[in-house]
Amino acid sequence: MSAPPIDLGDPDARRRWLGQVRELIADATAAGLDAAAPKRRRVLSRAEARRKLREASEALQVLLAAAGGADAGGAGVTANTA
């Protein structure tokens, strides 16, 4: 998965990019907090929380690569299935 390069010098492009980053961070944080909650308070299954975390991690890697940061093939979330 890849995205076209982002010109962070363009205020509109930077605003859209930061909005996407913020949304993915919020999604990953919500999934992580849900997974860490006591079982009776969880909304997501462990598998769904893991899927959401992995998806957000991969999308963030792509966004960072598009901005000239991390390589899209770089380290992402690895699930401990134990």
Structure, described:
By secondary structure, this protein is mainly α. It has a domain at 11-66. The chain has two helices and no strands. The chain has helices at residues 11-36, 46-66. The two termini are 28 Å apart.
Compact overview of the structure:
The chain is an all-alpha fold and 82 residues long. It has helices at 11-36, 46-66.
Rg for CA atoms: 15 Å
What is the count of DSSP helices, taking H or I runs of 4+ residues? Answer: 2
Helix percentage range? 55-70%
Class computed from helices, strands and strand pairing: mainly alpha
Termini separation:
28 Å
Morphology call = elongated
Query: Can you count the beta strands?
Result: 0
What does the main sheet amount to? none
Features of this protein?
82 residues, single chain, mainly alpha
SSE layout:
Layout (H helix, E strand, L loop, with lengths): L10 H26 L9 H21 L16
Helix pairs in contact: 1-2
